Amino acid sequence: MTLQTNWNLTKYFFSGLDDPRLQANIDAILPLAEAFAKKYQNIIKTFTTPEQILEYYADYEKMSHDMGTGSVYLSYLQSLDTQNNAVIKKMWELECIFIEASSRLLFISQEWKELGYEKIMAFANNPLLKDYKNALVSKANNLKYILGEREEFVLNEKSRALGVVEGLREELANSYTFEIELDGKKKTVTEEEIRSLRTNPNREIRRKSYESLRQVYNNKQVQITLGNVYAGIVKNWTSDVKLRGYTTVMEPRNTSEELENEVVDMLLQEVQAAFPLYSRFIEAKRKCMKLDEFHTYDVQAPLGSIEKEFNFDQAVKLHLETMADFDSEFHRYSLDMLESWRIDAFPKFGKQSGAFASYRAGEPSFVLLNHTNKLRDVSTLSHELGHATHGHLSQGQKPAVYDSPLSLAETASIFNEMLLSEKIRKELSTEEYKEFLNEKLSDVFATIFRQIQYIAFERRVHEAIFAGQELTYHDFNQMWREEQIRMTGESVIYDVTAENESGWSMIPHIFGSPFYCYAYAFGNILVFALYNRYQKEGQSFIESYKDILRAGGSKRPKDLLAEHGFDITSPTFYRDAIEEIEKMVVEFEGLVE
Q1: By the 8 A CB rule, do 82 and 354 touch?
Q2: Range of the domain at 26
Q3: Torsion of CA 127, 130, 132, 135, to 10 degrees
Q4: How far apart are CA 536 and CA 565, in angstroms?
Q5: Sign of torsion, CA 342 347 352 357?
Q6: Residue 514 Ramachandran class (φ > 0 left, ψ -120 to 50 alpha, else beta)
Q7: Is residue 345 part of a domain?
Q8: Residues 248, 515: contact at Cβ < 8 Å?
Q9: Average pLDDT, the chain
Q10: How far apart are CA 399 and CA 390, in angstroms?
Q11: pLDDT surpassing 80 at residue 576
Q12: Confidence (pTM)
């Protein structure tokens, strides 16, 4: 197998910004919108047969796909080089065209609204339209949030300004460089690299990595900028909440996730009630590390002085062995990703930090990584290839119901990590297993407990601004610290005062996707339930699991999971997962004692 560690976008899209096919794709966007409007304006509201609905969806899906190709390509180019001004300029041009196209298509939602709830639900229950049932049900349920055509036009135009604000944050964050002294030499590194040093066995290096992050994010000009950016984004969100008549600031996200408000509230309550578990883990870790005081920069520390490293080849080998043991289709698709120029593996200056998988109906998946040879980078590889495989398995769905809501989008990624954990565990000594359990618990608390801490912070900010309060970065800093302490209690000593607590400004999701983070917590809790079933049923469970992934967005999460024996409306669903976490904490405490 020959590993390809860079994307080959020419193979799948265009040869560059000057490719005439790219410009032709962009130039076709408005004509596509106009042709669709010519065919369907004043027609949708008169639909009477399922055949008309089928033709509508076929035309709409083709238009949407053709419109999106250039946009996807440019977003990939920008993620590889966030400072490329030519790409940025092209993306803004495209954004303006999309806003104009959206304005020409505003009649669509208005006419569905005129068609009305009862008729749409009748279509949803028609056997000929079974492939589109959830799309139609969602459309019917969301009618009450659609404003008049003039109001929707104004909001659509306003979105251009919001895009500038979020683009400013992203461009600013990706322009940062970080200074740190290592082995007596000053180094300039990327944010991905400085963050990876927070897991270094050397406590002084960890402390310096936190100081380096703070030096950039605590800069007064940065805080003023990001504080105003965040306040502007929240004001835009809460104004939409008021205008559209949502009952809570989180309801727009819950609606898009197809989760009932009560289910999300239950998730938050059950996880927050379990916060003392985190303090127990930190106390056991402090004892194991023989520390008198446990500081912020110790949270992600390994237990030992020797850090196990995995280069990319080793990470790939471990992942592929794990997939081969689990399921041949998962294994084959991972191989395809690795051999087909669809993984970009290593950090570079200007490259987007973190990792992601991207996919859409009718096209292959792409994965971006920033591999730095850490054990957690192996998990990240498995995580993102889980997303990619989910995108592959969902291809049997119609484009209108291809994308699963975010509440289910983390399922395959986290399940892959669980499988990998078991694979690694079997190869470790007792001391190595203790280290592994430390990392595993750190990840569990980060992806369930800390994500809920983020949501609690967001909800406070959004509710305050919704109520008419004016907030600045000083308020955000104080609120963030209060929510941190709610999770950690007295177990962690923070490296800066509450007035200087800039942690919120380092979380891209709260800017770009408000309330997104609970999807991670829900996804992890769901995977505990799925994995428990897999351990009991073995191979016979795999097809049921794959059916959940194949469903894409064709069913509401509550209904899809109920078909497979999981009741997400019951507190027991969440408490059972938290019990599994407590068992891991008890095991860790025992190893430490």
Answers
A1: no
A2: 9-168
A3: 100
A4: 14
A5: positive
A6: beta
A7: no
A8: no
A9: 93
A10: 14
A11: yes
A12: 0.83
* Residue 98 domain-assigned (yes or no): yes
Q: Is residue 592 part of a domain?
A: no
Structure tokens at 487: 């999770």
Alpha helices in 105-148 (DSSP H): 107-115, 117-124, 133-142
pLDDT value, residue 540: 93
Is the pLDDT assigned to residue 465 strictly greater than 60? Answer: yes
Report the C-alpha gap between 92 and 98 in whole angstroms: 10
CA 184 to chain centre: 38
The domain total for the chain is 1
User: What gap in Å lies between CA 14 and CA 73, rounded to an integer?
Assistant: 8
Q: Residue 47 maps to which CATH number? A: 1.20.140.70
Q: Which sign does the torsion angle of CA 223, 226, 229, 235 carry? A: negative
- State both tokens at 170: 């992203």
Diameter over CA atoms, the chain: 76
Own/partner contacts of 218-224, CB < 8 Å, gap of 24 or more, are 218/496, 218/500, 218/502, 222/172, 222/505, 223/473, 223/502, 223/505, 224/473
* Burial of 260 from C-beta contacts in 10 A (0-12 / 13-18 / 19+): middle
Closest CA to 212 of 183, 176, 184, 170: 176
Neighbours of 356 (CB within 10 A): 12
- Tokens 């969440």 belong to which residue? 574
Q: Contacts for 233-239 with beta carbons within 8 Å, 24 or more apart?
A: 233/162, 233/165, 233/166, 233/511, 233/514, 234/461, 234/462, 234/465, 234/514, 235/465, 236/158, 236/162, 237/462, 237/514, 238/462, 238/465, 238/466
Structure-token pair, residue 363: 């096209």
Other CB atoms within 10 A of residue 70 CB: 25
Residue 193 scores a pLDDT above 90: no
Cα–Cα separations (whole angstroms), residue 293 to 68, 289, 433, 490: 53, 10, 24, 11
Which residue from 165, 158, 190 is spatially nearest to 176, judged by alpha carbons?
Answer: 190
- Residue in 138, 144, 146 with CA at minimum distance from that of residue 404: 138
Token digits of residue 142? 């969301």
Residue 306 confidence (pLDDT) above 70: no
d(CA 120, CA 137): 7
Predicted local distance difference test score (pLDDT) of residue 305:
61
Q: Is residue 113 part of a domain?
A: yes
User: Shortest CA distance to 383 belongs to which of 344, 351, 415, 405?
Assistant: 415
Chain segment 367-390, per-residue pLDDT in tens: 999 999 987 899 999 999 999 999
72: left (phi over 0), alpha (psi -120 to 50) or beta: alpha
Contact 65, 28 (CB under 8 A): no
